[in-house]
Design a protein that fits this description.
This protein is α+β, with helices and mostly antiparallel strands. It folds into 2 domains: about 60 residues, lambda repressor-like DNA-binding domains (434 Repressor (Amino-terminal Domain)); about 130 residues, Umud Fragment, subunit A (Ribbon), CATH 2.10.109. It has 7 helices and 9 strands; from the N terminus they run H-H-H-H-H-E-E-H-E-E-E-E-E-E-H-E. A 9-stranded mixed sheet has the order 2-1-3-4-9-5-6-7-8. Helix 2 packs across helix 3. The relative contact order is 0.12.
Length: about 200
Amino acid sequence: MSNFNSVLRQLRKQNELTQGELAKKLGLAPSTIGMYERGEREPDFATLERISSFFCVNMNYLMGKEDSVSHGKKIPVLGKVAAGIPITAVENILDYEEISTEMAASGEYVALQIKGQSMEPRMFEGDIVIVRVQDTVEQGEIAVVMVNGEEATVKKVQFLKDGIMLRPFNTSFDPIFYSCADMENLPVRIFGKVVECRQKY
């Protein structure tokens, strides 16, 4: 039996989160967090990855197999992303966020600061999204989309036979449609997949 339950409780309290708040951030039920902390249940591997990434600790520490936290990799928080510029060469770095070493090993990541209210109530202005750099996403996933090679927008992506629809979560904002011709000529392209949102208070 691992010490996962006590480590999770300690990490949650260190980050001043209630079980309900942590559950919401991880996309789990509050009762599930309670079962984890009482040692009545252990998460599957994918959930363990999500928890370790959220707290920026490695899996061994999370399972109580190491005495100290192994710090992850720092990635830049960008105010904007521009096409054709290597991420390591950008100058508009606002800050740095830390991701787990396991996550860092699975691809190239950057962080992006949310601007505007179009993704409320899921994401608020000033929040930081962790983005895995990739040029495709699945139907309905949240992506960073480049328009005109300069402006990056965070939206839920819907692929249509005649183009792409970028859907906000805030119903006060209209979806944005780009035809196949728009995608080619503007251009419009996927920059990366949003894998995590870190709320800033």
